[in-house]
Amino acid sequence: MANPTEKSTLPENVEDIKDLHITVPVVTTKQLIDTIEINNKEAEAVTRTMETEDMETGRLEVPNTLEEMQNILDEIETDSYKIQIPITKQEDIKNTLEDLKLIFDLGKTPDYLFKLEPLPEPTWNIIP
């Protein structure tokens, strides 16, 4: 069997096909309505799944200020381990954010978490 494209060959068994997208033209009003209803049902299912996952994670909403976040951390942290905020060192960013993501639903990281020192001047000369 010749396959002049970069695409993989189709499996022999139809049951092995996991993802199938077929584009069919919408010709009648009934087809349009049916298509819209199917898309709406899929969108509602995705929304319900996302809401359920958010409730299951048990993570807290990100506070509006550094002080509010610090108060929450003070309530739940032990004496043996404390998350240091604001982040002041470049090398602490990754670990601190990973720790905060376990507690808070961090989508976009708030700017107030960072109080970083300026990066050092480069030791190389890019433009001669």
From TrEMBL:
This is Uncharacterized protein. It comes from Gigaspora rosea. The lineage of its organism: Eukaryota, Fungi, Fungi incertae sedis, Mucoromycota, Glomeromycotina.
